[in-house]
Amino acid sequence: MAPDRRKMIVDAATKSFSLFGFKATTMDQVAKLANVGKGTIYTFFKNKEELFEEIISSMVKEMIAEADAAIQPGLPITENVHHALYRLLEFRSKHQLMIKLVQEEAEMGTLAVSEMLQHVENEIIAYLKNKLEIAIEKGSIPRMNTELTSFLLLKMYIALVSDWERNHEPLSSGQIAEVMKVFLLKGLQG
């Protein structure tokens, strides 16, 4: 059976982006890691940016699958939102490519990386928005601006998980859930 060259290229590029970041990755490196000629890459992808987009899109699908796996039917929306956000941020903090991209954006401000991280954030917000809209349709929560609420949920969660830890003792998952309920999610229960 012939090797799947496209998959080999995507895997090699993911490895290269994870190790060296977007800016330092070259198509020559990807070709070498994939054990293909550089021209082979261009039969599948126009440029490095298109290859990067493909990888980020796959990663977003993985993140959403993780969040969906954390949701438990029958639990209140407050708990399911917490479980989904926790799983998303856990993925983000343990996935080598995400770690490298966040680091590269902070250190170099690479435009392509900033745009992709914004894309990831937008996808998470859209995911949360969809879950809130389903809960509204079921009558579980009152009508609201679901996009704004999703944005606030994500930003608050990131602040509690990441920003808080810079100067304070890390919060447990239970403490984060309680803060989220008190400040934001209690309002969802009407």
UniProtKB/TrEMBL annotation:
Domain HTH tetR-type: 3-63
PROSITE patterns: HTH_TETR_1, HTH_TETR_2
DNA-binding region: 26-45
Keyword Repressor: yes
Gene Ontology molecular function terms on file: DNA binding
Domain of life of the source: Bacteria
Keyword NAD included in the entry's annotation: no
Keywords from the UniProt entry: DNA-binding, Repressor
Name of the protein: TetR family transcriptional regulator
Provenance organism: Neobacillus mesonae
Taxonomic placement: Bacteria, Bacillati, Bacillota, Bacilli, Bacillales
